[in-house]
Specification:
Chain lengths: 95, 494
Amino acid sequence: MSIDLETAARVAKLARIRVDDDALPELAAEFNNILGFIEQLGEVDVEGVEPMTSVTPMRLKRREDAVTDGHQQDKVLANAPDAREGFFAVPKVME
Amino acid sequence: MMSDTSKMTLAQARDALRAGDVTSAELTESYLERIDAAGALNAFVHNTPDLARAQAAEADQRIQAGDAPDLCGIPLGIKDLFCTEGVPSQAGSRILEGFVPQYESTVTRNLREAGGVTLGKLNMDEFAMGSSNETSVYGDAVNPWKVDDRALTPGGSSGGSASAVAADLCIAATGTDTGGSIRQPAAFTGIVGIKPTYGRCSRWGIVAFASSLDQAGPMTKSVRDSAIMLGAMAGHDPRDSTSADIAVPDFEAMLTGDIRGKVIGIPQEYRMEGMPAEIAALWSRGTDMLREAGAEIREISLPHTQYALPAYYVIAPAEASSNLARYDGVRYGHRATLEAGEGIVEMYEKTRAEGFGAEVQRRVMVGTYVLSAGFYDAYYNRARKVRTLIKRDFDQAFEAGVDAILTPTTPSAAFGLGEMSDADPVQMYLNDVFTVTVNLAGLPGISVPAGLNAQGLPLGLQLIGRPWEEGDLLNTAYALESAAGFVEKPAQWW
């Protein structure tokens, strides 16, 4: 599997990372290098093997479905790049 | 006050504090001075002297009142990956510049409640992605060990932690380990570092890299110190759903040094082609030491070892791409300046391009690719199946009676900063070849300094234990440490 410039651009787009066009060839080459390395997983016989979901056999804890936290608007907004009137502010999303 | 408090281990400092030979205030002041004089190591990146002094005063009161846990009054360094209330926590990244957590991670809260004195935050690879501390926004942390005019890497990602402990800028430090980030830097700097069983330490409040692999652990000057500090860090936390509800034993009390009859596995697959002779020799000396201490040495096979690194470089980037999606310029951290007409998508893309360094961008995109439609089965699911097989290899060894497994920690000693800059990323990834299996299998692993190479740089040996049996593992490490008798310290040049 070889990554071309178009695929590299698509992956950057999916990852929401701006990559300039002139940086795409190097990025594609790096992808190919790393993917070439992980390609060897294809040699392993994984027939009938379950993909790991939890490394330690434990049942996730359950708890009562109740509100246990909240009323911390100031703290939640304390690190926002742009907070106005108690909300996060972002550029216009819809026209 | 004792003559040289800077060289004290945690256990020695604890005993001196309790005996009244030194106060935490005195100890803390001496470490703050050493940090100020060690700018060349670039280990501490956010200093908190006022907080440390206040904590020390409080610790002295507790010690006087006779209510002093082991950690009480001990000056510690904290990896920048831990969120610390009111103290900048950037994970070594530009994207978290200015971020000041409004809460305290569970592990650092446990340490503070035990009376630990926090001197400041420690340098690290950006988002813990690196093996040389060269991807940090703060610049390289530097290894206090030096053999010529080159500045050497302290390893990574917990490079600042390793450098600070080795240079006596703190008595012990926290680290985190996703693929070797505690054990490799510990080996490069001649200190001890343990990655506990997955679930032993809460991940709550630790900036996430790859959640199914991340674990916090101590980096210390001795195995005893690691036993003491791990006990203080560990414990069940309802805020981390993967935190194990298992009692934390008194690890220090388990250090008897008696390993007679223990079975130590030597995995043949770790004898990799091209292994430097001095690494092979160290490994064989370590094997002899454990045999002489009364352990039974057994050759074992972990047949899927060679696939651990490629599986890791699918699973870790996949999880990272998901975890790092939160850095979008909306709720915290850096936000790019927008041009007229640019909207929210441009905001995300520019913010992340400006805020993430090259290695983080690369891993996020590789993760995005292996999770994308059409490739999920071929890469991500296959890697998770291989992970099952890697864990099964270990399970079978333990079922056959193996108590611990001995391997080298790293394929080399510390290398020069910048020496790998022209190498492709995969070359750097090979640093983790002996450590990454342990994360994939969720097992505890510890690096113990075991000798110097021909140039005079420290080398470490790794012991891998059964899940939840850190006490037994620490005891085997204690026996190895005693036999190796590693006492060398870097000469102070900074």
